[in-house]
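Hey, I was hoping to borrow your eyes for a little while. I've dropped the whole record in just underneath, so have a look:

——
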Amino acid sequence: MTNHPLGEELYAAYASGALSGPMRLLVDAQAAVDAAIHEQRREAEAVAGLLLEVADPVALSEKALPEVFAAIDAEEAVIGEAGRAPMQAGDLASQKAAEAAGHAINELLSLPDEIRDLALEQGGWSFAGPGVRTMELMTDGPAKAQLIRLEPGCGVPRHSHDGREFTLVLTGAFHDGRDRFGKGEMCAADPSVEHKPVAEYGEVCIALAVTDGPLAFTGPLGWVQRALGG
């Protein structure tokens, strides 16, 4: 468990481009909510920039520029394709649904830019238990980044870890039976840790969770997981 920055080596790996996509997202998100982390990341990028200046140049392939332009054209082609579904006037159920959707959108808009943009592309939350919703943002090999939304007083099942798990609090706070984690704080766990994060009362807790291995549930869900071969 840690309640402190990820460490200089990780920021150096970030600046050199050696991190997985989910881990880069974690660093970006932490820098967005913590000014001290933002400064450490900036310093690491400055050092990486100096190293690039003294490194021997490497020639690009002949296909590099056409591939970049093709990617830009593909992205521009899909902008504006999605539109809002019309809402029937006087339909109370539709109005309530629209208000709920607006509230959900506002929650996402309050998140750091990098996470907000990915979340808005996903289209919505997935049910993961009473008061618990998840949203997968990206995967990169065994590494995965997802948002976890906990209603006050609700939490994920008790679990251990097959690999490392980093959970960065973006809104609200949670307690995992070992420590409390508020906005901008990070809970780090490894195979030696078993815990059950539960959101504090008063505010919805939204956290970014990055894992490099599957979770292993140890409560009643553990029996289900093992029965299914998980």
Notes: The radius of gyration is 20 Å. Residues 34 and 93 are 40 Å apart (CA to CA).
